[in-house]
Amino acid sequence: MKIVLQNLTKVFPSRNKKSNEEVVAVSDLTFTIPDGKLVGLLGPSGCGKSTTLYMISGLQKPTGGQIFFGEDDVTSLSPENRGVGLVFQNYALYPHMTVKQNILFPLQNLKGADKLDKNTMLERALEAARLVQIDNLMDRKPSELSGGQQQRVAIARALVKMPRVLLLDEPLSNLDARLRLQTREEIRRIQRETGITTIFVTHDQEEAMSISDVIVVMKLGVVQQIGKPQTVYDNPVNLFVAKFLGTPPVNVFKANVKGGKLYINGEAVLDVPGVADRDVFAAIRPEGFIPDENGAMTCELSSIEVMGRDVSIVSKNEAMLTPTIRSIVDADYKVSATAQNVKFNLKPHKVFIFDSQTEERIYFGDQTAPETGI
Amino acid sequence: MKNFLQKIKFDQWKAWIYLLPAVVLLLIFTVWPIFNTLRMAFWNGYGLFKELGGELTFEFGIKNFKWVVGYGGFITCLKNTMLLTVLTVPISTILALVIAVCLNAIKPFQRFLQTIFFLPYVTNSIAIGMVFEAMFNIVGFGTTMPSYGIINNILGVFGMDPVNWINAGSSYWANIAVLTVYIVWNALPFKILILLGGLQSVNKQYYDAAKIDSTPRLRVFTKITVPLLSPMIAYVVITGFIGGFKEYSSIVGIFGDDMQAVGGESLNTMVGYIYKQLGANHEGDASAAALILFAIIFVVTMINMYVSKKKTHY
Lengths: 374, 314
Ligand SMILES: Nc1ncnc2c1ncn2[C@@H]1O[C@H](COP(=O)(O)OP(=O)(O)OP(=O)(O)O)[C@@H](O)[C@H]1O
Ligand SMILES: [Mg+2]
Prior knowledge:
The structure holds two protein chains of two kinds. By secondary structure, chain A is an alpha+beta fold. Chain A is 22% helix and 33% strand. Helices cover 73% and strands 1% of the residues of chain B. Chains A and B meet through β6 of A and α9 and α10 of B. The site of adenosine-5'-triphosphate has 13 residues of chain A, from β2 and α1.
């Protein structure tokens, strides 16, 4: 079932009447989630991700806009009747029930034709528990579980009723690296198999990139960019998105364009045909640097880190706006660790330039704006 | 190290000084009376002879207990007390729970309603008893045209015959019904206060989760609200039982010092019995009865605690 959000807005009124500080948690959110897709909702803390989920689940009433499940307008439908599964950011497991009772609870609420008999319920609960590897903890209370175990119980509880829509609010934030990877693959697999339309909130961009069909990048309640993970990474529409995606993060420089050339720290580093003279921010992906003795861009070498396949060159430059310049190059490149300076040529499609005022992307050469939407 | 020990000693010494006023008061007004009660209870016939004067010594024994238990009046008191407790504690607890949940769900006027429900708590129970007496009364009974209190008038509106609730010739069960209404009404505010406090401290997110899980309202109440409130409910029930066993002033409030309707069965309770014995200078018997009451409350509270440990969560 596809989900359509139309001009969805949520404003929290100010606490006291004197100060008029309304909080616009979500502003004019419009996008469509195609049936059976997994969407990663991505953004820094406080940007309105949870609020968006709560509105889709019905727990919070939107101030404006509409929500459709398929063709049905569910904007004013109560959460009980929406049939969504939600994993809360802080789990919200029922503290007085065992793991088993927690997972069984949604099934016991099923009515009418959906009603299950006891054995089927138990089986379904156990199956859900097995998926997230907590089937050996069924008789514990939530207070007797670790954070990660509680989180997995919450996932099982949301999954067990096979919801029409699955909403996950940072469901992996408390798992260790390995389990995180494993559970995220599990979620991806379950989602593919069941075809449940899923929204996955995270502020870990790598997580979002790796499992989402589509990512939505938000900032202060406003959507910045929607698209396939690779597209958004390769073709960010503004400086915020460019900085937000990618590990190690993109390197940002103060720069200017003069006569169709991009100048960083006084050096003409790249041809940017079709761009008028102006001040810009230049963002270069770590993999966009090619070490070259005759390179156009000079940086002061700080250190070289060899990480198996790749070599990471850490350097400095007068114009940089990030703490260091980090470039990742093939191990074949030999850079002398004792050298004072290192010189690079740049790969044009790994360099993005942004207006210094609006921070909006300026496309040059054969760069074109990404397709918006999904 | 020595310095440190000295410091502890000094701090302890200081602590005792701070505690001294409270300790002295406790010793005089709590510990000594308890000790004295024990002593008197086990001195056969204490009180009766003492009044006659002279430095009599008393035999040590359990004659007082035998006398108290053997005397029919005490068993009646025990029965009345038990009956009232068993009736009022569950009724008031369930009512208080329902009212607290409703109050918690109401957003406008919540404070105002809370205050109204709390009023009985700050009103003198004898005074309330007198109001109840007026409400259930039949005035001019027997001699002139009877005029009824508000309760009988309400019954009349529904086409029911007036009931002789508390006047001469009223039945035991009518008396008990009035007392039950009164005691429940009097017990509600405290229970509502405790349960409402409990409700307001329950994390809202559990209810959100229940909504997401499409939980019907009644099931939210029985499966989430009640279990999450169980520590408060246990507290309210335990204190309710203790209060119930000490019931006394409500009966005086409605039926006066005689603690019975004119010509009716005795409605006396255990505490009432103790007061009566004291009034008759039977300190030994009063003490023995007090100890029996203590033992009963102790056992019931233990049972309560045991059950609530099994039933409450966390
Ligand atoms: N009940 C509320 N009343 C007032 N403001 C709120 C309320 N809930 C959230 N906000 C505000 O709305 C904004 C968005 O909050 P939200 O919880 O959606 O952020 P988030 O993207 O989920 O952040 P995080 O990643 O930290 O969970 C924040 O600025 C927050 O302070
Ligand atoms: Mg959040």
